[in-house]
Amino acid sequence: MYNNHLYNRAMYNGTINLNALAVSDDRIAFNGFSISNGSTIVASDLYIEPIERDFITSNAPNASGQIVNNSYWRSKRIRISGNITADTEIELEQLIFDFKKNLSALEGRLEIKMADGSVRRYICTQIKDEMVQRGRHFHVTTAPFDVEFECSSPFGTALATTSEGFIITDLVYNGALTNEGNAQADVDLIFILNAADTINRINVENTTTGEEIEIEAAFSAGNVLVISGKNKTVTIDGVEQDFTGSFITANVGENNYTLTATGVSVEYELTTNTPKNFL
What we know:
It contains two helices and 24 strands. The protein is mainly β. It has two domains: 5-158, Elongation Factor Tu (Ef-tu), domain 3, CATH 2.40.30.200; 162-278, Jelly Rolls. Strands 1, 2, 3, 6, 7, 8, 9, 10 and 24 form a nine-stranded antiparallel β-sheet that branches. The chain has a six-stranded antiparallel β-sheet with strand order 11-23-14-17-18-19, with no helix packed on it. The protein has a five-stranded antiparallel β-sheet with strand order 12-22-15-16-20, with no helix packed on it. The two termini are 48 Å apart.
């Protein structure tokens, strides 16, 4: 009876009947390794901790209360528990070895499939791994697990960004971009200059948030200017550049922006990439 498969799965181990679990294949994966494949590894519980929010405040002068100068989203933890199951004790040992090895990576990609089929990705590192010890007469072919991850970025992000492209010939251009997530997002902008007559400065302003960044350079046809809000870098043809101001972010919903090229005339292809972030 001790090595009977049903015995190890249910009453003796104190777990629920795995056959009754409603699971989908590969609902959860870390760097491509499935934590819920619907057969040998089944995640039965997923808890995504609310994000901590840090407020930068100052006391209101000659009045009650405080002034909120800014706020930042901080840490998030994700906890996953379930069971690893095999046909033999030797196979279970190998599954546990592979499980621990694949989940040990630093800053890995934890991907969770949502009910609508979309995937949200969290960049995180495992900080806790609890697995019930296996004895001679129990947990011979199944082992409960409980793992916890710390996210370096508090947001879950869709795998695809919202990308828009334009060809612009005006020195001053007004446009709009949409943030389709439910949290603020860093925006990447890519300029491919087809023509540039005495262009020595390019400004980007999000008129919705008031953020503006300025790059001074002797621009010429063929240059590729990349302003990466995600990486916090500005490059021309792959070489990092100095800049003034701040990188552009996008509030939830529609954001208006103004592009200004200083010089005689210009033509460039603009691509905006806005990630979909989720709280």
